[in-house]
Amino acid sequence: MKQNGATKVTFYHSPQIPLELHKVRIVQKLHLKPVDERVEAIKKGGFNTFLLNTEDIFLDMLTDSGTNAMSDNQLSSMMHADDAYAGSQSYYRLEKAVQEIFGTRYFLPVHQGRAAENIISQVFIKKGDVIPMNYHFTTTKAHMELNGGAVHEIFADEALKIKSTHPFKGNIDAEKFNSLINQYGAEKIPFVRFEASTNLIGGQPFSLANMKMVKSIADAHNIMIVLDASLIGENAWFIKQREPEYANATIKDILNEMCSLADIIYFSSRKLSSTRGGGICTHSKDLYLKMRDLIPLYEGFLTYGGISVREIEAMAVGFYETTDETVINQSPSFVAYAVDELDKLGIPVITPAGALGCHVDAMGFLPHIPQAEYPAGALAAALFIASGCRGMERGTISSVRDENGDDLLADMELLRLAFPRRVFTLSQTMFLIDRIKWLFDNRDLVGGLRFVEEPPVLRFFMGRLEPVSDWPEKLAEKFKSDFGDSL
Predict the structure, then answer these.
(1) Annotated catalytic residue: which of 168, 374, 460, 479?
(2) Could you say which of 49, 104, 138, 322 is catalytic?
(3) How many Å apart are CA 291 and CA 243, to the nearest integer?
(4) Does pLDDT of 433 surpass 70?
């Protein structure tokens, strides 16, 4: 049957499970190596899952960035790309798609989302500025601070609750926004940023009602709204599911309305529609011209922006596919299944389920590990040992140090298990849940980590750590005791 335009399936004697409305026609071989080899691999990688070799990984749930499965239409579109350096027809097809889906007039291509952050920060942020937002992202904060700005997170208190039924934990708190304006003055606030959906606190969406409320305040003080649209499709899906006013709206209509409220929209196509690329778009010619000249300086000519024209073709098709509910609901439905099943098992996860991935609360999972010993990083390493599945730490390792060299402890310590669109099967998801449950039952064996090599910027990418004890070996021995020679 169909409800609100989306296919809903009822099962006679099973929990609600995600249904793939696609078929698999190309496969890629995976490896599930023995536990002793996994221990050696995580040691070699400095207990940083970013530094693992994919030959050692079974399910790669590090990120959805650039890892979504492309469709047959996307792959076929790449074969008629126009390789021109300037004036490529591939670019004009992408520009048309952006204009139709986002409803904007002007478009600037960039090689990925952080390139857009660099340009927006350079053009609009000056020393002493403050930038309010629903929550920061790592590269966003770095670019803004490099240009003299200070990030202020003005989320509602509900946002940091692990277990919640609030449908829009990514909302901005209007009272906090007004207080910030009163404290610093509107002239110190170049823009307010919405992230769809909040990556570091569980992929939580914001509502259109909240965006409209914030816009009314911003307009009254001549403050721009900047929208990070990297996960805008999923945010639109949640609006359709959770905001009654939009229950019968199409995804395209919701996307258009969201973008109509923003002065500048930027995105990473690595999350939104393809494996590479990004862009900045706006309704304003004046804003477009302020940013335009930095594109050839940092990215490439205006009609390729540092992106392969083949990827540009795939991006264009991917934009149209983002309006298809059977495509856009794939990642959220698998995330929801994993979250619901883990929650039933008593394992602490962020609820309600959000976009991008399943987020396990590391401090609830490993309460015996102090935050200074990076429980989210330890949990990511321990899960790899237990399963061969690679997740990502989203906690204090992803934070920074203060001027005294002390860690700025993160608001949350999360293990993020990303579900790229149309990549994993139900049986693989069930395997993941089973191994998390085993690890939870043996969580007292897991210990903390400490840095042995720490880059000064974005340390979570290349930093290397070591365990504070021999807990990895003890965990592996327990695994072999319970599973024998099984992988």
Answers:
(1) 460
(2) 138
(3) 34
(4) yes
Contact 460, 50 (CB under 8 A): yes
431 pLDDT more than 50: yes
Class of residue 428 by CB neighbours under 10 A (exposed 0-12, middle 13-18, buried 19+): middle
Q: Which of 54, 85, 96, 293 is catalytic?
A: 85
The rounded distance, in Å, linking the Cα atoms of 472 and 481 is 14
Q: Given the structure tokens 């990070």, which residue do they identify?
A: 228
Note the pLDDT of residue 477: 97
Pairing of strands 130-133, 6-7: unpaired
Residue 178 pLDDT level (bands cut at 50, 70, 90): very high
Strand partners, 172: 155
Q: Say which CATH architecture domain 2-64+327-483 belongs to.
A: Alpha-Beta Complex (3.90)
Find out if CATH 3.40.640.10 is the number for domain 73-323.
Answer: yes
210 neighbors 168 (Cβ within 8 angstroms)? yes
215, 271, 390, 459: the active-site residue: 271
Give domain limits for the chain: 2-64+327-483, 73-323
Residue-wise pLDDT tens digits, 332-362: 999 999 999 999 999 999 999 999 899 999 9
Q: Is the pTM of this model over 0.85?
A: yes
- H-type helices in 132-250, by residue range? 138-146, 174-184, 208-220, 232-242
Q: What is the DSSP letter of 256?
A: H
Residue 474 annotated in active site: no
d(CA 321, CA 318): 5
Give the whole-angstrom CA distance, residue 331 versus residue 345.
Answer: 22
Q: Any catalytic annotation for residue 83?
A: no
Helices within 273-329 (DSSP H only): 285-292, 294-298, 309-321, 325-328
215 belongs to the catalytic site: no
Catalytic site includes residue 394: yes
**Is 12 known to be catalytic?**
no
**Out of 107, 135, 137, 246, which one is annotated catalytic?**
137
Single out the catalytic residue among 64, 228, 263, 361.
Answer: 228
CA angle, 132 as apex, 128 and 134 as ends, to 5°?
155
**29 noted as active-site residue:** no
Phi, psi (rounded to 5 degrees) for 146: -60, -25
Tokens of 239: 């609006």
Active-site choice (141, 169, 394, 416): 394
DSSP 8-state class, residue 246: G
155 as an active site residue: the answer is no
Nearest to 15 by CA among 441, 418, 338: 338
Looking only at the bridges linking them, the beta strands covering 2-3 and 6-7 are antiparallel
